[in-house]
Design goal:
- The chain is α/β, with parallel strands linked by helices.
- It contains 13 helices and 16 strands.
- It has an 8-stranded mixed barrel, surrounded by 6 helices. Strands 1-2-3 form a 3-stranded antiparallel β-sheet. Strands 8-9-10 form a 3-stranded antiparallel β-sheet.
- It is globular.
- The termini are far apart.
- Bound molecules: phosphoenolpyruvate and magnesium ion (MG).
- It is an enzyme of class 4 (lyase).
Length: 427
């Protein structure tokens, strides 16, 4: 009933207009599962490789013809006849087929599209939602707190803001739907406020506004004002989070905030972030130091690790080998989870489990180049990790994930739990 009979791939477009892969896995029962892979802009150097064609005359080298051929060729041949319910064995076979440390032979995009589509196919054949197929009903299903990126900067917009993401965190609510409604209310209030102050209200890659503010503080002041104008309490109901994506402005051992005209040593940048934490209700800072500056990460964790969530994205790239080294050294206290950084669902779940055992939080995340695929919403609920980062409320590629979470909350009814403020209590 769940034996794989065929695998097909389709080149589709992501939210930046670049080609990406969608795979469909069919089973002998007649059921099928489809999934599409996203694509990052501020990628970590140690991410699994996204296979691109490199032909500059077609989509500037970003074509996926080779990855598509790998799905329909060697991957389909090897997986035909396998049981889609055995995700671990399917993913192990995918890794074995590729055989490289960074998935560069077949491409992490080819592998992930098939890995996720297999999970969807199995769930469909079993007639259960994906979160039930991936999760453990005995642990219960928990809706995550949304980390909503309302102000875009860095590699995600062409404005003056060096910090890549300024997010709102609606954690002080009883239900996911209430938290989302509050977050969206702030987004609308921020649009009105920016318009009033003469800023453009066009948006960046993740759907947040992208004004030319004078620096991080002006961005955070505007967001705090929007929270109040929307009728919510900053801090206790809606807090703030940052993704510095600091690897993007780390050069020659220094951190350069070009938009603010400032350069910092690692200790000074640590001090800059500590002052922000002192002055604003910031719950979480992602990539506050560059991925190759582990000494900086040590400083930052010593200074702020007991007060705020410190998230490794480019730092850990959803990779258990790198995460275990970080845990050993005691750096950061949370990991961002992006399935396409590692290439299979099983390896993604392994990173989340390793984090959980070490007391590190996991935040399931989109990429800046997205599709309508909503797998990450089910993944966040299935693992009860408590947090999801999937952009703002103004682009359908982001809204799809929020709408999927609303549907799950409705479906779970009285069994639906919301992670709320508890998601941040470990620090
Ligand atoms: C989502 C992010 O951006 P990208 O997909 O460009 O890495 C991020 O850095 O957390
Ligand atoms: Mg990041």
């Amino acid at each position: 009933m769940t034996t794989i009979t065929s695998i097909k791939a389709l080149e589709i477009l992501d939210s930046r207009g670049n080609p990406t892969l969608q795979a469909t896995v069919r089973l002998d029962s007649g059921h099928a599962g489809t999934a599409a892979v996203p694509s990052g802009a501020s990628t970590g150097a140690r991410e699994a490789l996204e296979l691109r064609d490199g032909d500059p005359t077609r989509f500037g080298g970003k074509g996926v013809t080779k990855a598509l051929a790998n799905v329909e060729g060697p991957i389909a041949a090897a997986l035909k006849g396998r049981d889609a319910r055995d995700q671990g064995a399917i993913d192990a076979l995918l890794c074995e087929l590729d055989g490289s440390a960074d998935k560069s032979k077949l491409g992490a995009n080819a592998l992930l599209a098939v890995s996720l589509a297999t999970a969807h196919a199995a769930a469909n054949a079993l007639a259960i939602p994906l979160y039930r197929h991936l999760g453990d009903a005995s642990r219960g299903f928990t809706l995550p707190v949304p980390l909503m990126n309302v102000m875009n900067g860095g590699a995600h917009a062409n404005n003056s803001l060096d910090i890549q993401e300024c997010m709102i965190v609606p954690h002080g609510f009883e239900r996911f739907g209430d938290a989302l409604r509050a977050g969206v209310g702030v987004f609308h209030a921020l649009r009105t406020l920016l318009d009033k102050r003469g800023f453009p209200t066009s948006v960046g890659d993740e759907g947040g506004f992208a004004p030319n503010v004078s620096g991080t503080r002006e961005a955070l002041d505007l967001i705090l004002e929007a929270i109040e104008r929307a009728g919510y309490k900053p801090g206790s109901q809606i807090a703030l989070a940052l993704d510095c994506a600091a690897s993007e402005f780390h050069d020659d051992g220094e951190y350069h905030l070009e938009g603010e005209g400032k350069r910092f040593s690692r200790a000074e940048f640590c001090g800059y972030l500590a002052e922000l934490v002192g002055d604003y209700p910031i719950l979480s800072i992602e990539d506050g130091m560059a991925e190759d500056d582990w000494a900086g990460w040590g400083l930052l964790t010593d200074r702020l690790g007991r007060r705020v969530q410190l998230v490794g994205d480019d730092l850990f790239v959803t990779n258990t080998e790198i995460l275990s080294a970080g845990i050993e050294k005691g750096i950061a206290n949370a990991i961002l989870i992006k399935p396409n950084q590692i290439g299979t669902l099983t390896e993604t779940l392994a990173a989340m489990e390793m984090a959980r055992r070490a007391g590190y939080a996991s935040i399931v995340s989109h990429r800046s180049g997205e599709t309508g695929d909503t797998t990450i919403a089910d993944l966040a609920v299935a693992t009860a990790c408590g947090q999801i980062k999937t952009g703002s409320a103004s682009r359908s590629d982001r809204v799809e994930k929020y709408n999927r979470l609303l549907a799950i909350e409705r479906e779970l009814g009285a069994d639906a739990r919301f992670a709320g403020s508890k998601a941040f209590r470990s620090h």
